[in-house]
Design brief:
Layout: E1 9-14, E2 17-22, E3 33-35, H1 38-55, H2 84-88, H3 104-114, H4 118-127
Antiparallel strand pairs: 1-2, 2-3
């Protein structure tokens, strides 16, 4: 028997397609979907959420302590006194969601945005 649950999902449009992720996940859980269209990304993340809910045996994936009541999108101007590379020297940073599977397309876009060659990331990942 299926029990419906309302989940707030953010869908972002990028040059290379759409990325979607749910709000309200507990610490240590990350679920991301992607697609060439809004509907594909939403279907992908919905499938990933369903899979995770059906297979999560140890702990719940959503933080029921503080459920998301509303979600807002805001744009803010952030003043930066100097680029980080000028302050600390050459620095490459790549932050990825902590989920079990990352599609090659998502990894490729993240590496491109961070200015890190994909091969360099994979070598560093293997060493970690």
């Amino acid at each position: 028997m299926e029990i419906p649950r309302k989940i707030k999902i953010i869908v972002e449009r990028h040059e290379a397609g759409y990325v979607a992720y749910p709000l309200g996940l507990r610490d240590g859980v990350s679920i991301v979907g992607e697609g060439d269209t809004y509907d594909e990304a939403l279907a992908d993340v919905t499938s990933a959420i369903r899979f995770t809910l059906e297979n999560a045996v140890d702990e719940p994936i959503f933080s029921d302590d503080a459920p998301v009541l509303e979600a807002f999108i805001a744009e803010a101007e952030v003043a930066v006194s100097a680029p980080v590379s000028q302050v600390v020297g050459k620095s490459e940073t790549l932050t990825l969601p902590n989920h079990l599977r990352i599609k090659g397309h998502t990894l490729q876009n993240a590496c491109r945005q961070a200015g890190i060659p994909r091969e360099a990331f994979l070598k560093a990942y293997e060493r970690a």
